[in-house]
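Late entry, evening session. Most of the bench is empty. Finally got around to the prediction I had been postponing all week. Sequence below, unchanged from the version circulated by S.P.
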Amino acid sequence: MDMLEQTEIDLRLPVAPQIHQILRQQIICNQLSPGSRMSEAELATGFAVSRQPVREAFIKLANDGLLNVLPNRGSFVRKISINAVMDARFVREAIEADIVKLVAQEHEASLDRTLGRQIAQQQKAVEQGDPDAFIELDELFHQTLAEAAKKAGAWAVIQSQKAQMDRVRYLSLGQQNIAKLVEQHRAITVAIADRDSATAEQAMRTHLRRIINDLPTIAQQKPELFEPGGN
């Protein structure tokens, strides 16, 4: 990818978080592939900013586990860590299983309508074969549940942990897999509407454990994207 072909940023807002989010998304979507060298100077020129906000974004990407910053050698997109993927899935399941139980036990009727509209939009993404649109809608679905449970802080914890998991999820998104994920979302929404917390919890756990089945196949098909030794 040409490092100078960047999404525009809004200079009226803090710059470093915008650069971090842009680069994070490019890494997750494999537009910046594992092993790619990233240059502070080139990115600063491409974004028309100083090197300081780019450096801050690099530090955050390193903390996310997405970038290796090597003194006197440069910065490189980190390969996918299988251990980090599994840890993130464990944390996410623990938090979101409780979130969906809370939502099923008590929520406004308007939430059922909101989730229904989101499922319809997800189904449209399936029909149009648009994985990028589905990724955004999937993120919105899970965020909506966290907000409905008044657990925005817990959602922030998930966001900080799941970057490596998102990379694998993106690699797995064929049209058939997207359709299956929409079915799982629908099962969650039906259980919530029925105020069946036990079924909602199990549906969420099933949904988030899907990556356990997908991961070995993806790692075998694309070994160059993964850190050796299952690290």
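Two things to note before I forget:
The first helix runs from residue 15 to 28.
The chain has two domains: 15-77, 82-225.
Will write this up properly tomorrow.
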